[in-house]
Hints:
Elements: H1 3-26, H2 32-49, H3 51-58, H4 62-96, E1 104-107, E2 112-113, E3 116-117, H5 119-134, E4 139-143, H6 154-166, E5 173-176, H7 182-195, E6 203-209, H8 213-222, E7 227-233, H9 237-256
Parallel strand pairs: 1-4, 1-6, 4-5, 6-7
Antiparallel strand pairs: 2-3
Amino acid sequence: MSSSAKRSLSFIIGSLLVLDSLWLLALDKIHLGIIFPLIIGIGLMLYALFFNRIQNFIQLTSLRQTLWRYACAGFFLWISTLVIFFIYLQYSIQQSNTVQPASAVIVLGSGIENGRPSPTLKQRLDVGAAYAKRYPEALLVVTGGLGFKEQISEAAVMSEYLQQQHHIDPSRILLEVKSTSTAENLRNVQPLLAQQHISLKQPVVIVTSDFHILRAKAIAKHQGYQQIITLSAPTPLYIRYNSWLREYFAFISGWLLREY
């Protein structure tokens, strides 16, 4: 590839990444899956704008040329692992929606906005409610404690949404109101299930967003859930791949923290 082609391609890709990130930040979306593309985009744009200076600097010594080659190789190796993760995640999503009877349906929290479920959380609740209507004997377990500056727990907001929007009988809904993470969600639910004489050996449905399926299932398995059925809620296209990127880092973090 010629120098001008490299320069143009870097600038175009960088601009698209920066514009996408800035747009999502303007919508009050902020997480690593948005910030990281912004950083990469700015880097690619600077590389394109100062291409000649950077190349001249690299060519001054053989050590700099070697380090540059290793840096480029490392970057493309990382991109390869990201692509593999995305492909495997897409495969897991396609396999996750096999519906079968279960004793309980655990809907994992995903944040509330102004006392209401976030768009992502609404998707999860809608999927959980659809399952509950199909299998009326299953209990619904909603999870999530108090967020920053919130006056009501996430689980309480979720329960209210299920009752008002889907007419789910409150007697079928269990609330787990102390957790702040997926691992805590699934751990704190266990005593609630035990009170209803539901063991971890019985089939249990976990409802979460499509990008979160892999990690949620891995954490549940590590905690002793033996018959895990996963149902995925779709992520809006405009933020889908940013969410998948965030999950890439979260999956690595969970492994390092020995959550699974």
